[in-house]
Amino acid sequence: MVTKRIAQVNELLRQELGRIFSRELELPRDCFITISKVETSPDCEHARAWIKIFPTSFNEEALAIL
User: Fold this and answer.
1) Model-level pTM?
2) Residues ≥6 apart with Cβ < 8 Å to 54
3) Which of the residues 5, 12, 27, 59 has an alpha carbon 20 to 30 A from that of 34?
4) Rounded distance, CA 55 to CA 66, Å?
């Protein structure tokens, strides 16, 4: 069960990762990365983020940049 606090942390991490990715990464033209989900452990020591890369033909190149 995800507490309200953890849900807020997840959303803040998702938003901040999106900002960092758009500001810091130089992706190929017409390539987009979105953070679709973030899960934080109950003790906030670990977090896991799921990303989506569009179009999928850029998967390897975008992952190398990350």
Assistant:
1) 0.84
2) 31, 32, 33, 34
3) 5
4) 16
